[in-house]
């Protein structure tokens, strides 16, 4: 999230006034996902290799990757990163865009309540829990097709995204892309109840 906050701040300061703030929030989120994936993707693959017993240590995984082709071998540590980005870029973009919009609207209402006594509007923990759950759940529901295609490829059911897409359409038409969406929302929305209040607390501690 530190990369997101930095990118969002830079984009909001430098972009022309004609560019919608929501578009900049989405762009900042997308770029931050790409940045974090550069670190997370190889670490995740090394974790999988260690858990499966293919290597005994992280150093062993790096040595094996380098030995299999130098820089190209190390590049194989990013295998599957594209699938993650296919899902995570729209997910986090929608998630943070919805969160920022709902948070701004809630702050306006809170400010109206305290305007008479000159107080400073702040959102309660319960406000943040509700907003976080809605943002996370909505993003999870809207990006279910990407998650479904990613799962099919990674589980070996389909050779690639195109094949996965065609097989899903053949099985149940466009509606089949939303298979499991309810469970995905049920699983992912509670994370927003914890994540966003913690995120706001961190920002307050940093004085932002």
From TrEMBL:
What residue intervals traverse the membrane? 20-43
UniProt keywords (A-Z) are: Membrane, Repeat, Transmembrane, Transmembrane helix, Transport
- Superkingdom: Eukaryota
Under the heading InterPro entries, the entry gives: MCP_dom_sf, MCP_transmembrane
* UniProt cross-references to Gene3D superfamilies, sorted A to Z: Mitochondrial carrier domain (1.50.40.10)
Mode of membrane association: Multi-pass membrane protein
Asked whether the UniProt record includes Transmembrane among its keywords, one would answer yes
Solcar repeats, residue ranges: 20-105, 123-205
**Gene Ontology CC annotation, any one:** membrane
Compartments annotated for it: namely: Membrane
Family membership, please give it: Belongs to the mitochondrial carrier (TC 2.A.29) family.
Its recorded name reads Mitochondrial carrier
What organism is this sequence from?
A: Chrysochromulina tobinii
